[in-house]
Amino acid sequence: MSSSASGDLSQENALKLATFHLEGARKSTDPDLALVLYKEAEMVLARMKQFTMAGLPRTDCNQDQSIREGIANAVSELDKMSTSSCFWDKLQTRCKKVKNLGEMQLADGAITENVIAMDSTFMRSLDQHGDIATLAPHIFGENKQPPVTGFRLPEPDERLQGTSQLAHCMYLLKLWSSSPDDIQEPTERDWICAIENDEDERERLRTLVTDVIRAFTRIDLKDANAVAEVVCLAPVLEKDDFHDLLGQFYNDIERSVLLNSHQLEGIAQLIKGAGSNYLTAADLVKIFEQLKDHLRDIHKQSPPRVYRLTLMISNVLDAMADAKVKGLDREQLDESLSSYFDILKEASDAFLVYQAAYAYQSTQYILDGEPLWQTALQRSRSLTRGQSTTANAAHTVELDRLLESLNTIQKGLNDVPEVSQTASSTHKGPRSLTQSGRIFLDCINEGLSFEYKQAWYPALRMADVLLQGGQFADFRKLIYEAPCRRNPAFQWGLCQRLGVLTVNSKWDTETHQNAVALLGEIYQNDAVWGHQATVKQWIVNILMQLTSIPHAVKQTAKAVLRRFGTDEDPVKRVLYQSCRKADPNSYPLKIVSPSPSTPSLLDRVQDVPDVETRLRL
C-alpha cells in the first residue's frame, strides 16, 4: 500500500482526512476554525496531488482509479467552498473585526533551519484570504516511533550493571508469561529462550529485586537518587513487594518535617507502575491523608520549592486518575485537599492557580475510575513493542471518541452562564499584562469547582498519551479540533507539555524544533489561539529556559524570541518587552529524575566494591 506525504497515512486515509476537514469547514459556525479546517484540507489535497502525479501509475486498478476520482471530487469541493459567498462572508467579517482591534499581523522572517517555513502556495493563500495563519504543514506532520532505551541482556550469574537493566530483564520475563508474541526483538527472544529452563537464574533476578527494595528501606535519609532507582522497578514488582515499597513511602512522608518533591515523584511513578488490581481506594485515601498536613503549610515555603511541590502533586493526581481505582469517596477527597485548594486558588501567581485548577479537575476524573483517555493510554504501551501500525490506527479511533466526548462536556459548560461569560472575556483583543493576568486567574478559577468537569483536563491527558507515543499527527489534530483550544488553562498546559518535550533529550532535534515552532505559533497567531497575554508570558518564560539548555534547539528558541521582539505589530512588541521584564522566577517545566547514585542500591546488594563501580563509569 502506498504512503502519502501527509503524515504516515495511506492515500486512502489521507483522502478521508481531507474530506473530513472539508465537511467540518462547511458546517462550522466558528470562522476561525472553519478556515483552519479549510487550510488543512487544502494542504492535504495539494500534497496528495503531487504524490499521485509522481508516484502513482495510471493503471486500470480499481483502487488507483478510486483514489484519483476521490482527489478530483475533493478538489472540486474545495474550489466550490473557496467561491462560496456564505463561507467567505463570515470569514471576511471576522477579519475586519479582528483587524479593527489590532489583533492581526502576519510576522515575517523564518525560524532557523526552516522549521516553520511555509509553502509558497500556502503563503499566497494567506495573502488572498485575510492573513489568518494556520499551523505550517511541517510542524508535527507525521508520527514517529518513540525512543526506546536499549539494554544489554546479561549472561547467567553475570553481575548486573544497573537497576534499569534489572527492571528490563524482569519486564521481559513478565511479558513472556502473559503475551509472548509481544516480544519481537530477536536478541530478547533468544535470551528468554535461554533462561526459560534456568530456574536458578530467574530466582536470582527476583531476589535482586527484593534485595534492592530492602536496601532502600534501610536508608534513613533517602535522597532523590535512591528514590529514582527504586521506583524504576515499580512495573515489575510482585504485589507484596509493591505494597512493601508503597508502605515505605507512607512512613517516610509521615516522618518528614518538610515534604520533598522526590518523595512525591516517587509516589507518582509507583502508582503509574502498579499492576492490575494492586491499588485500592484505601491506598489512595491513605496517600491523601499522609499529604494533608504537609499541603496545609505549603504556602510557608519558598516560591521555587512551592512551584516544584505543586507540579509534583499534579503528577501524583494524574497517576491516580490513570490507575482506574473505583470506590473513592468524594467527601474524603474534598477534605484531604481542601486546604491545598483554598490556599492556591487565592494566589496571585498564575502558575500556582493553574496547578490548583489542574488538581481540582484531576480529582473529578479520579472519581470516574475509567477516564476518557484510558484506552489510548493502554494502547500507547504497545508502541515500544513493535506494534506501531495497529496502535496508530487504534489511537486515531480513540482520539475521535475523545473529541466527541469533549464536545459533549463543552456543550454542557456553555449552558453555565458564568463559565461562558468568563471564557468569552479572553478573546476581546490586546490588553495589558496586568489586566490579562486578572482575566486569566478568573477564568482558571472556574475550574476550581466540584460541580462540573471541564474539557481541557482530559484533552491535556490525551495530549500526554499522544506525545509519549510519538503520535504527533494525532496530537496536531487534537489541539486544533478540541473545543477547549482557546481555554487559557488548556493553552497553559499545552505550552508546558511542549516545553517538556523539548528538554527531553531522548527525542531527536526535529521533534524539539517542532515543539519550539508550535510555541511560536501559539504566541503569534491570535486568530487561531486568541490574545491571552499571560499565556504568552508563559511561552516567553519557556523559551528563555530553552536558550540555556545544551541542545541544538536553543538556537531555534533564540531565533523565535528575536522574532517576537521585532514583530511589525507595536502592540505585540510592547507585550513581548513586558513579558521579558515580568517576574524573573523561572517556573519549572518538569522535575527531572536524577541518574542512579554511585554506588547504587543494586551495587550494594551485589556487594560490588566502590572501586569497581567507578571503573565502570
Automatic annotation (TrEMBL):
Domain of life of the source: Eukaryota
UniProt domain Arm-like repeat: residue ranges: 197-562
InterPro entries: Arm_rpt_dom
Pfam families to which the protein is assigned, alphabetical: ARM_5
Protein name in UniProt: Arm-like repeat domain-containing protein
